[in-house]
Fold this sequence. Notes:
Elements: E1 19-23, E2 36-41, E3 46-51, E4 54-58, E5 63-67, E6 72-78, E7 83-89, H1 90-95, H2 100-107, E8 112-114, H3 120-133, H4 140-160, H5 174-187, H6 194-200, H7 205-216, H8 220-238, H9 243-249, H10 255-266, H11 270-277
Antiparallel strand pairs: 1-7, 2-5, 2-7, 3-4, 3-6, 5-8
Helix pairs in contact: 6-7, 8-10
Amino acid sequence: MPTTRFDESRTALKPYGMRCELWQPKRMKREERHNELEINFMPNCSITYLISNRKFKIKKGSVIAFWALMPHQVIDFKDDCPYYVITIPFSVLCEWKLPKTFLDSIFQGEVLFNQELEDLQFEKKRFDRWSTELDRKGTELYSACSLEICAFLKRLALKTSSLSCQQKVQPPPINLVERMAMFIANNFTEPIKAGDVANAVGLNPDYANSIFKKTFCKTISNYIIGQRVLLAERKLSISDEPITSLAFQSGFSSISRFNAAFKKKNNLTPREYRKKHLLNLQMK
Length: 284
């Protein structure tokens, strides 16, 4: 089966679509972002990710899932053996009606692990089959494959969510919510506000805020601030540029607003945060 490597010239935020592919480990020179759920399965290798500002070592035999709109980057790997990557578009993910707590965790930036796979060879054969069948769009095999991946993800959700949390998400107009999320992803470093996001999709600001909050569990304004803080955290973790410069690069219009938003989330000043995290997240 052919393998894929990350394309450094790839357009930022370009979606992959519903796919399952075999990837060859590669240290990425830059971060990647796309508006999809990403699942990685490591049958024979381990990789180290920098996801937002956090460093994760994904061990052999593990499966992880994360929201790929967060900046993510492979910074190291052990054993040059391929691993599997599944990408699931936002609209498909919400149609599957997964447990609400699972989606809340994903959309709020959690990285979910399953290190209890019982039969790696069985899982490898299953991922191999998915990679073939997802190429056959519009066929019954494609539909069956989608249902199997949905079931796989539901089992992962059950293992990472409490048993009492079985409430399903009632999806709002997904295409509008996705468009708002993508507009923010493309523009949050600019001086945009909630009204600009609503206008971008032709909605009343109150209605836009309502349907956005149903999916992301926060207002548009708070989501924009959260994206700016995430970017600032990453920059503070991997760069020694002046904090004032990083604040403006992250989309904040003043240092006071940056400091207030940053400390509210982290309970640390930007300077304290850098001192705590910079050395631990240096990339090779």
